[in-house]
């Protein structure tokens, strides 16, 4: 799936029956911890659509997984919220254009480390299955 929104404000939507099937059928650690891979790994079984932003903003990290992420979000809120509590994505982009140094706060964090760890666990899981 092609990301076009900042990490943290992208969205995935699933019908409950898809989530139920993933919960019941997924066996790999990566598919148990992260539901989306099971669904994406079986496109023959699930209808998958994509909603893309008109501009690729996937290089932005607006999630809160690490302390630096919180520092970034805190800086954004302190700059925008007092004057505009209903701010939008475009307001944040304007702030970052005016203060590009804010993007440096969490830019170094590698996205998807948790999923990568789960994929490594898949290898150990599969090796264990072969030895049985």
Could you list some keywords that capture this structure?
132 residues; mainly alpha
Overview of the structural elements:
The chain is an all-alpha fold and 132 residues long. It has 2 domains: 1-49, no CATH class; 60-108, no CATH class. Helix content is 48%, strand content 0%. The chain has helices at residues 16-25, 29-33, 35-40, 67-80, 89-98, 113-131. The protein is elongated. The mean pLDDT is 89.
- How much helicity do the residues have? 40-55%
Helix vs. strand class? mainly alpha
What is the straight-line distance between the termini?
35 Å
Shape descriptor? elongated
Query: Main beta sheet, described?
Result: none
**Total E-strand runs:** 0
Q: Low-confidence stretches at least 5 residues in length (pLDDT < 50)?
A: none
* Integer count of domains: 2
Would you list the SSEs in sequence order as H and E?
Answer: HHHHHH
Strand content: under 5%
Task: Report Rg.
Answer: 18 Å
Q: What's the total helix number?
A: 6
Mean pLDDT: 89
Write the layout of secondary structure elements.
Blueprint: H1 16-25, H2 29-33, H3 35-40, H4 67-80, H5 89-98, H6 113-131
Summed up:
By secondary structure, the chain is mainly α. It is 48% helix and 0% strand. The model has no long low-confidence stretch (mean pLDDT 89).
């Amino acid at each position: 799936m092609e990301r076009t929104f900042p990490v943290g404000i992208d969205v995935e939507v699933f019908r409950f029956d898809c989530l139920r099937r993933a919960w019941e059928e997924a066996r790999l650690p990566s598919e148990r911890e992260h539901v989306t891979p099971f669904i994406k790994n079986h496109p023959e079984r699930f209808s998958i659509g994509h909603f893309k932003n008109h501009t690729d903003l996937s290089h932005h990290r607006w999630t809160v997984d690490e302390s630096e992420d919180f520092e970034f979000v805190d800086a954004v809120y302190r700059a925008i919220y007092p004057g505009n509590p209903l701010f939008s994505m475009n307001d944040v982009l304007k702030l970052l254009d005016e203060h590009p140094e804010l993007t440096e706060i969490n830019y170094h964090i590698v996205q998807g480390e948790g999923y990568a760890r789960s994929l490594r666990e898949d290898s150990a899981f599969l090796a264990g299955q072969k030895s049985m």
